[in-house]
Amino acid sequence: MKKKVHLFVVFVMMFSMIFALSGCGNKRSVTDEMADIEETGGSIGENGNERQESGESGVAALEVPNERWKETIASEGEHPVEVNISVKPEVPESGTLKIVELTPVSFDAEGRKMLMNQLCDADNIRVLDDNNLPKWYLEEEIAEYEKDISGSAGEGGSIDPAVTEILQRDKAQLDSAPEEGAAPTDYEQERYTGTIDGITYMFSFHDNDHLSFSAPSKKDEIALLGKPELTEDCHLERNFGLPEKNECSMSQEEAVLKAAGYLSNWGYSEFTLWNVKPLSFYAADTSTGGDMTWSEGYEMIFVRALDDVLVNGDPYGDSRVEAITLALTDKGIFSGSFRNLYQMNEVIAEEPRLLGFEEVKKSFASVLAKHAGADEASESISLDKMELTYFPVADHEAGYTLLPAWKLYKKNVADEIESIFIINAIDGSYIFPAKDIDIP
After folding, report:
1. Per-residue b/e over 297-332, b at no fewer than 16 CB within 10 Å?
2. 318 & 360 share domain
3. What is the pLDDT of residues 53-100, one digit of tens each?
4. Which candidate, 382, 379, 399, 401, places its Cα nearest to that of 80?
5. How many domains, in total, are found in the chain?
């Protein structure tokens, strides 16, 4: 069956990595290493860096300078590059950071049931079963396929036989199709419909760690917008040109408060706003015969905060980072997503001793010399952002551990990360590189 494409699209980049936080001897877990740090108050990190031995711990002992760190480092990899660093390090206002064990929340059958019942009125949740699709779904899919076929024929293009076959199958099922899907019994399916504030949405689960939802049809999408001239025949898509004027009656602050209210009602009040931007659209072939570009509403990204410190300041920097996205218009929620949720477990250390800033610089210099430029086409990299944050690290035994981490990176004018390097803020070990990350 052809997959329906809706306006809200989330690209999830999956990275499979194993991290070794012990430099010698038998393989040990992150939990073991952190227990040693708490007990001894300091040791030698895997990059040969000595951890702090002073009486102070946490952010207060870092001695982060007020001036910019400027340095040029030549990498030693297969494709050597010159790395130009010019950053003003950002540290959280919180005086201490923690180390916490994490358990990923799986969107298996039980996880899907839990999340759907958090978001929706339980009495209105229905299954979208490919073998027994409801009439409204088939009618829209038939209209969509017929439009595609008509367009291809009008342009002299060929028609995919598979499309014709699916269209015939949908038409054959239409007369006997139920008006709506059945209530779920086991939550083994990946697609559902449900209502939030009386509005119906289609919910799609992906890879047991990601849920996205949006209006189930073009007609329903248009109903959430304030443009009466839009018709179901128009071509409608998200636009990232971001027109200056926002036609939403809500201010940005009001939209953020409303979104935060949804999260609180759903049980995710510990998430905090990371980014907000206008919700913009492009429509062609409207009833007026012209094209339209406009902003109407806001799209907000929320990430977990632990004592007001964000868990990785960029939710697109790694597929393991939690993020909740909500797009709102005056009519209600336009779309949303949940991905990579974690359960916070035991606090391993309340105030781990962090590397002093001079040692942090040495660790980054070592990491960049070894790893920068491995996939770079250019002869130089410029890094202009640096933050102390939290980052979830894979543990051989315990699953994941949330650690204080330094992030050094570069963003382009489109707010896309071009290069990023992350090190453990406790021992300076290399955690994560990522390049050319696509941001939806």
Report:
1. bbbbbbbbbbeebbbbbbbbbbbbbbbbbbbbbeeb
2. no
3. 444 556 767 778 888 999 999 888 677 888 999 999 988 876 678 999
4. 379
5. 2
Domain boundary (340, 375, 409) is at 340
Burial 262-293 (b: 16+ CB within 10 A, else e): bbeebebeebebbbbebbbbbbeebeeeeebe
50, 40 Cβ separation under 8 angstroms: no
Cβ-contact 12, 206 below 8 angstroms: yes
Pair of tokens at residue 46: 């895997």
Same domain, 333 and 364: no
Four-residue CA torsion sign, 22, 26, 27, 30:
negative
Q: Are 304 and 183 in contact (CB under 8 A)?
A: no
Phi/psi at 315 (nearest 5 deg)?
-65, -15
Separate counts of helices (H) and strands (E) for the chain: 7, 19
Q: For helices 161-174 and 135-154, what crossing angle results, to 10°?
A: 150
**pLDDT above 90 (res 188):** yes
Alpha-helix runs per DSSP H in 307-421: 357-371
CA separation for the pair 290, 20 (Å, rounded): 58
Q: Comparing C-alpha atoms, which of 401, 390, 405, 424 is closest to residue 344? A: 401
Alpha-carbon radius of gyration of the chain: 25
Q: Which two tokens stand for residue 240?
A: 């990232």
Domain match, 414 and 301 both: no
Provide the domain limits for residue 45. 30-103+346-435
| 423 belongs to a structural domain | yes
Which one-letter amino acid corresponds to residue 124?
A: N
Question: Which residues face 332 on adjacent strands?
Answer: 329
Domain with 327 in it: what CATH number? Answer: 3.30.310
Judgement on whether residues 334 and 351 belong to the same structural domain of the protein: no
- Mean pLDDT in the chain? 79
Identify whether residues 393 and 426 lie together within a single domain: yes
On whether both 71 and 49 belong to a single domain, the answer is: yes
Among residues of the chain, what percentage have pLDDT more than 90? 35
Residue 173 within any structural domain of the chain: no
pTM: 0.76
Q: Which residue, 108, 61, 70, 114, is CA-closest to 89?
A: 70
- Tell me how far apart the alpha carbons of residues 187 and 126 are, in angstroms, rounded to a whole number: 10
Judging by beta carbons within 10 Å of its beta carbon (0-12, 13-18, 19+), is residue 353 exposed, middle or buried? Answer: buried
| Residue in this structure with the two tokens 């940005």, named with its chain if needed | 252
Same domain for 363 and 332?
no
- SS3 string of 419-432? EEEEEECCCCCEEE
- Residue 25 is predicted with a pLDDT of 37
Whole-number pLDDT of residue 398: 56
